[in-house]
Design brief:
alpha+beta; formyl-coa transferase, domain 3; 8-stranded mixed sheet; 17 helices
């Protein structure tokens, strides 16, 4: 009886391996770029051309290969990167599995030309369908050029799983940047039907990341923290450039781009309360550690990494991002201009239909605009304080001038963040003033159990409220945090009571309490449409520098946006 278990032919084995390594054109480009970097190249050039699914060509000026090495390179599990099992514990190269070229050759045509230094002629090799078709001498400069064409030509069913041409081009560019951004000391060039992009060899990785971000780079803040095992540095994006998906989250370890669920969760946790739940940040995180601390032999595509101390890395990243987002962006000092009233009333002489009606006679009203000018030069160490307000737009946005830029600030979002930070300080037990109210507010507890009433009272006390019991189901609020200067206690309590009824529970820890502190801050903050005095605007900017995570309101909306002089010149097509 013949055995039902048999060894698979080499062509079948190669196609199985190709299914793991070669998913799409971008998978091929990734392997070719990583081989070029491992060759010790100083310059790498990648080109995408031809009909879909494209012809890919990668050229490098690295160590090259002899004829014997070229022939071995397209055989399975042949590599120059490792020699023993011990090497797997300290992998310092991109490739090491010896699967890339044979896997590609099994589903495409490979034209390889390579010449090592000191050899007069190069070796030309053609492999297709997992078989070496020809080997010849050729003329070529030092280094290696690999051209891959007819991808999935012998497995047309695989083409059906590819996305549109535009999507696949996006993936190709993404892979190029994923290898080139951390590739310090190497110049990279990429060309496809949509254009070119290049990195200079002298360009540091963090600068490459900023250039990759394009116009969004103005909303990146630097991070750099170290622990006993890791260093995390790079850029954390402000809420202004948050995205609906994870396309803006870039993680690198020892020069290799990777994915990690734990680190992804840590980054999201760092942005809790800064971004809305349905938005994800833009981040460029570079992780360095000893090779023995990171296992890259987890996935055939080498896109996943397993760390020996993942909790340490996740906590380090969360702390680094949290610290960076809590600081204000740096800005140079400049001389403040004169405030101008940019409201429709000032320009046209007529009251805007979008403005609230004037205050009733005898009621307190803010001093009219314009604001007075600030004569002293602002300090560059406190970003918001360094801005000079020059106008108020639509009664909602403060128009400010910085050094070579215009900054728009949402006055409600800014004040909401300030009030929330002060409430959070009080809740965390830090010194924050409490004031008694001239007019106490008697409120009714929802129909909750006695033990839940205790939890409600505990929350109120921690938040800074003073109160007295007024029998079953009633509380007299006699005071609250001083930060709630224009607080509508009745309206907030109605919202609070409805929230308790809806969730059938009460705040039990700081994350639940945040939601109620957000509501308080919202009810106590300057509203859109409110006119503000000169002094109020200046205090708001100064207080914003002292607030934690001042770049967004507690709901995750951006507090400010900037337009640089260059952007304004481009809008008006000014050349100088």
């Amino acid at each position: 009886m013949s055995s039902r278990i048999r060894s698979l032919p080499d062509d079948v084995v190669n196609r199985i391996a190709a299914g793991e390594v070669v998913e799409r054109p971008a998978s091929v480009l990734k392997e070719l770029l990583e081989n070029a970097v491992d060759s010790g190249a100083g310059a790498v050039d990648a080109q995408v051309s031809g009909p879909f699914p494209f012809t890919l060509r990668v050229t490098d000026d690295g160590c090259g290969m002899t004829r014997e090495e070229a022939e071995l390179s397209v055989l399975r599990h042949t590599t120059s990167k490792i020699a023993s099992a011990d090497d797997l514990d300290r992998i310092g190269s991109f490739g090491f599995r010896g699967e890339a070229l044979p896997s590609i050759a099994s589903v495409a045509r490979i034209d390889l030309v390579s010449r090592p230094p000191g050899q007069e002629s190069a070796t030309g090799l053609v492999a297709e369908g997992g078989v070496v078709r020809s080997v010849r001498e050729a003329g070529a400069p030092r280094g290696t050029t690999v051209t891959v064409s007819s991808l999935f030509g012998n497995v047309p069913a695989r083409k059906k799983f590819l996305k549109s041409e535009r999507t696949e081009l996006d993936h190709l560019r993404d892979v190029f940047h994923g290898v080139a951004i951390p590739g310090e000391g190497i110049s990279f060039r990429f060309a496809d039907p949509r254009g070119e992009f290049a990195y200079e060899s002298r360009e540091p990785a963090v600068d490459r990341a900023r250039r990759h971000a394009g116009d969004d780079a103005q909303y990146l803040v630097p991070i750099d923290q170290s622990s006993a095992f890791f260093r995390v540095f790079g850029w954390a994006g402000l809420p202004q450039i948050a995205r609906a998906g994870a396309s803006g989250m870039w993680f690198f370890v020892n020069g290799r781009r990777f994915r990690d669920r734990g680190l992804h969760a840590a980054v999201r946790e760092a942005y809790r309360g800064i971004l809305p739940p349905d938005r994800l940040p833009v981040t460029y995180l570079f992780v360095t550690c000893a090779p023995s601390e990171a296992d890259v032999n987890v996935h055939p595509a080498k896109t996943e990494v397993r760390f020996r101390y993942p909790r340490d890395l996740n906590e380090l990243a969360r702390h680094a991002i949290g610290k960076a987002l809590g600081d204000s962006p740096a800005g140079p000092s400049f001389r403040a201009p004169t405030w101008m009233d940019m409201s429709p009333e000032s320009v046209t002489g007529r009251r805007s239909p979008f403005r609230p009606a004037p205050a009733e006679p005898g009621s307190a009203a803010p001093a009219p605009l314009p604001f007075a000018s600030r004569d002293a030069a602002a300090s560059g160490e406190r970003f918001f304080s360094s801005l000079a307000p020059v106008g108020q737009l639509l009664g909602t946005f403060l128009v400010c001038e910085g050094a070579g830029e215009m900054v728009l600030i949402d006055q409600h979002a800014a004040d909401e963040r300030i009030v929330f930070s002060r409430l959070k300080d009080r809740y965390l037990g830090r010194s924050a003033p409490v004031q008694r109210w001239l007019h106490p507010e008697e409120v009714e507890l929802p129909g909750v159990l006695a033990d839940e009433r205790t939890a409600v009272e505990k929350f109120l006390a921690r938040a800074g409220f003073t109160f007295e019991s007024r029998g079953v189901g009633r509380i007299l609020l006699t005071g609250g945090p001083a930060a709630l200067s224009r607080f509508d206690a009745r309206r907030w309590w109605d919202d609070f009571r409805e929230a308790i009824r809806a969730q059938e529970s009460v705040p039990k820890d700081i994350l639940d309490a945040d939601r109620e502190l957000w509501r308080m801050a919202c009810h106590a903050s300057v509203r859109g449409g409110d006119r503000v005095t000169t002094e109020r605007a200046r205090l708001l900017l100064a207080d914003l520098d002292d607030a934690v995570a001042a770049h967004s309101c507690p709901h995750g909306r951006p507090v400010w946006f900037r337009l640089t002089r260059a952007q304004l010149d481009a809008m008006f097509r000014r050349s100088g």
